[in-house]
Input
Amino acid sequence: MVFELNQEFFNQIFFFVLFFGFMFVYPRLMLTQMLFQLDRTVRGLEENSLKGRSIAIKKASKSPSRAVRDSITQFMDFFVIEPVGIDPAGAMKRIEHLSNLGDKRFRYFVKNVAPQLGKEEQANMAMTLAGTVSLHQVMKIVRHYVEIVRKTRNLQIAMILQMQLPFIERVSRAMLKGTEAFANGWPVGDTVGPLVASHLIGDGKSKDIADDETVVVKRRIKGRNVIVMRAKGPGGRLGKLGRAVEILSRRGKIAKVITVDAAAKLEGEKTGAIAEGIGVAIGGIGVDRGYIEKIATEKDIPLDTIVVKMSQEEAIMPMRMEILNAVPSVLKMVERNVQETAEKGDIIIIGVGNCTGVDNDKKGALKAELLIKKVAAQVKKQEAVEEKDRKKFSNRFLGM
Output
């Protein structure tokens, strides 16, 4: 009896010691496991950053010198400091100024490291560098927080970072594919706006309006005077769309502004789905959108928009067939919108987005569509191989 009581007492003591010991040890085990996973993610991001740099170096020259390699490596840390927010008056002008300075610095750097490239190829090189810089910045930020976790042994920070890893890895992979697309001059998902604009332009000729990076063509569509606008291609550019609309508004009456752009879809929505709305569908830092909204408010101009849905990753990756297949429907919706416009004046149609790989007329649009189909087939095969490799790794990891 006494032995049984002692045995039960020791069992209880052992249970409490084990329980409290586990309370102290388990968080450390969790932290060790999280750090292992975080380190693996950082290595993957570093690998993507190095691949992006390699793509940029190869784009600059087939046989790059040491100076070119070192210049591109150093440029990967390029940054722009945002203007102060304590004085909101004139903030858009300051943002536009800094944005223009950043664009000029990219173009100047490209001319120095790749002077042998043509004008359109230099524009693609600038976009390639932008993708490389973004890949490098993502890697540095994640590595920064991983090192903080390692030094502070803070489980909460590790958990927050771990929860973001799937999204960070997806964005990094998409950025790498987008960087490759810019280097090769392939249209990306965000190019759907300029592609639609090129179909509407037909064989029209551009007129100089704001700068040499924006295409502006006047056409007759459905019995109305229409001004079609987009960034100049086939090099990677975004154009100065807001400034161009501001200049056009001074020259004559504007009946309506229609923007066509890519839009981020919600999970569960189909890639290539089309939606109509009100407003200005221009992303980025907001300068072009701000100009157009200001003009529309002052002159009571209707703002219509048509968007093609895609994920944020698909917007910067080579264009998928689902997005390309939406173009004919978008063209019909634009023409219907023009036909239904009752206001007098010119109708401005803006094909918003990066114009990589798409020239400025219908002939260029048809040529780009052939390229999109070819690249989409290659990407599909590559994704099938990557998915097969992921399954093999998972089965090996699980011992199956």
Observations:
- The longest helix spans residues 2-60.
- The chain has two domains: 2-82+94-184, 189-368.
- The chain has a mean pLDDT of 87.
- The chain is about 60% helix and 10% strand.
